[in-house]
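The protein record quoted in full:
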Amino acid sequence: TSLNTEKIIYEESTLGSTFLKLIDTLNEAELDEPISYKIKWCGEVFCDSLEFTAKTLPFRYMTLIPGSEQFSLGPEYGNNNDGKQAVVKVDSFYAGIYEVRKAMYESAGSELFILDRDLPVSNISWNEAVEYCNKHTEEHEHFGAEFRAYGSQKEVNLQAVGFRLPTEIEWEYMASYGEDVNMKREFPWGNNISGHYANYYGSGDQYEPGPTPVGYYDGLVNTLRDGESFFGLQDLAGNVMEWCHDWYSDSAYENHDYTTNPEGPSNRQARVVRGGGWQSDAIECNNRMRKEFLPTVSHETIGFRTVITAEPFLKMWRSQ
């Protein structure tokens, strides 16, 4: 059994199905390096211990989003002919805890006219976001020939190893998942919204009107962690809206019952944007809100975050 946290993966442990969550102290650890751990626990009669090696991930600030065999699509996607919500399978993937910020964007060789390096990137078209994903992928050449840029205007290879934009279903899943797959949330953190949770029009934060720095609602800057999703992701609602990979269609997911990793139509005019932004009203930050923009369009309230499909990445990484 593998045990997962936001920063590291524990392989071949003997703890069975126990889920271990360490204090988040590994952000500054060396990437792709083994770290030895010894865990000790005590019961009423005796104590025991376990030693194992944890290997840090080769990328920072991403967390594993465990997949689901049955995830119900919201009514905003359209229903099956029988009037029931479609149920789909979502495979596991890694997702950026934060939206891509200026410092990360420029480290991949792209320039951006934003002064604060901690602000999320904005005024980025869908095409430019995909270009960043490919450049960021190419930075990891030491992983071997499989780890290369991919993606096109029409489709995404979910079995390739590299950074990409989330599909709309992946975005919906990581934003609305609650305590279990049947308890979808109205907002990433719960069912109500206020300025404690997100940056939206009238939220009252000190940066209004405008975006807040990445991490403002994660307890590092704003002292609260109210705005994180069930999986620990920040700013899925508010701050900047986020590009998804899919083409936009009002009926994109009709007749997709029990499909694995469904995507939108093969071709349309506009791409999907989700999540609401700092110019959005509070209600527009809910997990059901969908918008469409041409892939060539950039806007001051649109940014993005990246994801990596888990299974092909782990297969490649463990073989190194």
Residues 1-27, 77-83, 144-149 have pLDDT under 50 and may be disordered. The domain at 61-320 is CATH 3.90.1580.10 (paralog of FGE (formylglycine-generating enzyme)). The chain has four helices and 13 strands.
